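Appendix B, Record 12. Input sequence as logged:
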Amino acid sequence: MRTMTLETAHGGAHPHHRHGWWWKTLLSGFLLWVVTIVVTVATQNTNLVPTIILLGSFLVPFTVVLFVIERVTGTVSTMQLVTAFFVGGVLGVLGASLLESDLRPGATLYLLVGFAEELVKGLLLVVVGWRVRPKTARQGALLGATVGAGFSAFESAGYAFNAAITTRGIDLVSLLQTEVVRAVLSPVGHVLWTAILGAVLFGAAHGRPRFRWTWSVLVAYVVVSVLHGLWDSNSTISTLLAFVLTGTPFSAAQDGTVPPALGGVVTTLYVAGLAVVSVIGVAVLVGVLLHHRRRTRQIEAQQVAAVGSWQVPAGPWGVPDDGAEQVWHRTPPPHVL
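Logged structural output:
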């Protein structure tokens, strides 16, 4: 007999699951991006620069959306996911920009930016997932990744634009460097942080039609905000560590620039810092998903055991067989049904 789970009870898998369109799109989009760069360089046509920005900024985040579409279940439609990506991305960067407009430079700047941006994405995730059924940690992680991908795409487009515009004209090399770095890091940046928050938020509401407040949601929000702040401040942290570890006095920094002798050390520490933050984020997400998976299996096992306890082995005349446990016939309580 097939056991009905929460996911199969709410419509099951979508018919377009597991078709591998995400990696096909990633590969073909990358080829289009390369061809666009070659044509731009060969023709010196600056009208193609926006195409490079859009392809480079949206390719990886939109691939994340396709990855989610092939795995999401329940009442979530493809249109809802695409809307969450585009509308959520636009509203996310606008809301974050408004919250960050009054922030002043200081030691806590990056941390405050992390709290502001994760708050905006969290609120958007609540709006997007309000009517989603079933609410499970896995569903929340997938929807959170979609909202985070939309935010990442529009934010990356802004960074790429700023990198391209200089006093000397369009700096194509700086533009491409910015796009490559942000494209490679986007899955372990905004996508990962919002996926963690979504997994905890939806996991807390498991089996319920509405979201449920628990302290774990607040803890998750603080954790992803701190990870976000550490990620953004990694450049400053790695620079300070380079001075401390090499014993170089801070006075050696002229006009706020790092001495050339420390360039390699700073780069190494920067990459190591990003790797550490990424590993912590992935470990947190995997831990949350495994915790809720075990919890779901325990609940399902208890439900099966409770329902089975009301079954009475009967003989051919509707009378319990000899030796069978005598069980009073009565209506089981509502929580068993």
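The radius of gyration is 26 Å.
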